[in-house]
Design goal:
Blueprint: E1 3-6, H1 14-25, E2 30-33, E3 38-41, H2 47-57, E4 66-68, H3 72-77, H4 85-93, E5 98-103, H5 110-113, E6 118-122, H6 127-135, E7 140-144, H7 156-163, E8 169-172, E9 183-186, E10 193-196, H8 201-209
Parallel strand pairs: 1-8, 2-8, 4-6, 5-9
Antiparallel strand pairs: 2-3, 3-7, 4-7, 5-6, 9-10
């Protein structure tokens, strides 16, 4: 069973963050708290880790995997093109609980871009996650820590029982029960389309209507 590392997302200990970053750099798969729900993560440059995440979730690969990014420049570097709506919506809602689907850079792993060739990107509203991305350094895979079709748990103790020895490190940031997943917006179509209402759905729909 994977080890547990406790961390305070509001006041993270640097040595603990360095341990998490090291696990990711060394090819590990982790469970960790995001600013929405607990996620499964690894380096997007780690094909074995990416495949492990799909096996853990028991999910087919056509949908791809979300990446957390530290900002607009990092997001642009992962895309083959930037739709006009991206900057306006990202500047309004990032950092925050909104994921944008954008045309993926051609050399990104198909585990990330899925069948549609899109990459899901989110800039989290979390100081500790930004510090972690600095230490990795780079983006971080983020997908809900659950088996596909089952509700995600907000407690590491429950996640350990479910995922057992399939995960290398469980980062325990406390209870995130009741958290809502991010809103997902497809920017590869015109006009942009909300494909999951999530945390910010109503406000995002209004913003799209003003584009």
């Amino acid at each position: 069973m994977g080890q547990v590392l406790r961390i305070d997302p509001l006041n993270p200990d640097r040595s603990a963050l360095e341990r998490v970053a090291r696990a990711i750099r060394e090819g590990g798969v982790i469970v960790y708290p995001t600013d929405t729900i607990y996620g499964l993560g690894c380096s997007p440059d780690n094909p074995i880790g990416l495949e492990r995440i799909f096996r853990i979730k028991q999910r087919a690969g056509e949908r791809g995997l979300l990446l957390l990014v530290p900002g607009l420049d990092a997001a642009r570097s992962l895309c083959s093109e930037i739709p006009p709506a991206f900057d306006r919506l990202a500047r309004q809602f990032w950092p925050g609980a909104i994921t944008f689907l954008l045309p993926a850079r051609v050399d990104l792993s198909p585990w990330i871009s899925g069948d549609r060739g899109l990459v899901g990107l989110r800039n989290p509203d979390s100081r500790y996650l930004h510090l972690l991305m600095e230490l990795i350094p780079g983006p971080l895979v983020s997908t809900s820590a659950n088996i596909s079709g089952e509700p995600p748990s907000g407690r590491v103790a429950e996640l350990r029982k479910q995922l057992e020895d399939q995960v290398d490190l469980f980062v325990d940031g406390g209870d995130v029960g009741g958290a809502v997943p991010s809103t997902v917006v497809d920017l590869s179509v015109t006009p942009p389309r909300v494909v999951r209402a999530g945390a910010l759905g109503e406000g995002v729909e209004e913003a799209i209507g003003r584009l």
